[in-house]
């Protein structure tokens, strides 16, 4: 992994879920727990800047969700699978109610978990996670099907990734045999994206805990969807930030400040 993304205070741990390794970063401290869930093609280390912005009042714990980063591939990427992993992590850590933050895929996982386990979530932060995704629209990760998963050398893998190489070059992993791979399997992530499509309004609207909805000016949430989401979920505050869909990494200062401001109201 790119250790530059991860402060020295962060430690990596893992647990087994049905015999499969689930890896997570604990950014440390004695503050209140905040569990952060990344989006597709990402990993827990992308919340390093957020952890630095929130410390020491908050202890950020960021798993590599199934099939990404240092976590093992899973047999499926269903809604139930992701939520079971999160429940196993919270049980493993022995945490009471936590603030649950998610970005994109992670945001959908977060609010769906909160809908099913309201007693385990004290507050919710949804960053660019829509309440519905058109099942018949274009697949945003279709380009993955043309990417290699691994090659004999790092150079060969970067060459095979073509225009996508700059997005993943600093996160490539070396295998024990010296070959190199992406921190996810392209087909897994294609399938995962396919399985997150659909109408999730019932889960989004089910919760009543304090909620922050963060959208980007150049993100994936249209203004009318943001308005509808705020209207249909009680106790929701909306914050719009200048930037693209990848706010936690492309606008880390503004994102950290917005999250910190919301947390101060709890």
Topology readout:
Elements: E1 11-17, E2 20-26, E3 32-37, H1 48-54, E4 58-63, H2 79-93, E5 98-103, H3 105-116, E6 121-127, E7 132-133, E8 150-151, H4 154-161, H5 165-168, E9 173-174, E10 180-181, H6 186-196, E11 198-199, H7 201-206, E12 211-218, H8 223-232, E13 236-244, H9 247-250, H10 252-263
Parallel strand pairs: 3-4, 3-5, 5-6, 6-12, 12-13
Antiparallel strand pairs: 1-2, 2-4, 7-11, 8-10, 9-10
Helix pairs in contact: 1-10, 2-3
Provide a compact summary of the structure.
With 266 residues, this protein is α/β, with parallel strands linked by helices. The protein has helices at residues 48-54, 79-93, 105-116, 154-161, 165-168, 186-196, 201-206, 223-232, 247-250, 252-263, and strands spanning 11-17, 20-26, 32-37, 58-63, 98-103, 121-127, 132-133, 150-151, 173-174, 180-181, 198-199, 211-218, 236-244. Strands 1-2-4-3-5-6-12-13 form an 8-stranded mixed β-sheet, with helices on both faces.
Strand order of the largest sheet: 1-2-4-3-5-6-12-13
Mean pLDDT: 95
What is the oligomer described by this structure? single chain
How many helix segments?
10
Q: End-to-end distance, in Å? A: 34 Å
Number of separate domains: 1
Gross geometry: globular
The low-confidence parts are none
Question: Mind describing the biggest β-sheet?
Answer: 8 strands, mixed
Q: For this structure, what is the CATH class?
A: Alpha Beta
- Going by CATH, the architecture would be 3-Layer(aba) Sandwich
Kindly name the structural category.
alpha/beta
Strand content: 15-25%
């Amino acid at each position: 992994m790119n250790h530059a993304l991860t402060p020295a205070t962060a430690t990596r741990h893992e647990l087994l879920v049905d015999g499969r390794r689930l890896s997570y970063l604990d950014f440390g401290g004695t503050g209140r727990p905040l569990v952060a869930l990344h989006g597709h093609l990402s990993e827990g280390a992308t919340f390093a800047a957020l952890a630095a912005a929130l410390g020491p009042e908050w202890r950020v714990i960021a798993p590599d969700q199934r099939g990404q980063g240092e976590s093992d591939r899973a047999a499926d990427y269903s809604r139930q699978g992701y939520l079971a992993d999160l429940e196993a992590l919270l049980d493993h850590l022995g945490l009471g109610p936590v603030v649950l933050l998610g970005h994109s895929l992670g945001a959908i996982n977060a609010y769906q978990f909160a809908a099913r386990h309201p007693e385990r979530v004290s507050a919710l932060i949804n960053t660019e996670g829509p309440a519905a995704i058109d099942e018949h629209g274009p697949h945003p990760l279709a380009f993955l099907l043309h990417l290699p998963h691994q090659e004999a050398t790092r150079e060969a893998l970067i060459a095979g990734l073509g225009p996508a190489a700059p997005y993943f070059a600093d996160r490539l992993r070396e295998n024990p045999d010296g070959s190199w791979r992406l921190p996810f399997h392209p087909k897994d992530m294609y399938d995962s994206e396919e399985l997150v499509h659909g109408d999730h309004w019932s889960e989004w609207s089910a919760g009543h805990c304090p909620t922050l909805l963060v959208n980007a000016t150049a993100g994936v949430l249209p203004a009318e969807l943001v308005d509808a989401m705020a209207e249909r979920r009680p106790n929701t505050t909306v914050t719009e930030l200048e930037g693209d869909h990848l706010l936690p990494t492309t606008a880390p200062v503004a994102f950290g400040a917005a999250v910190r401001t919301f947390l101060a109201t709890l």
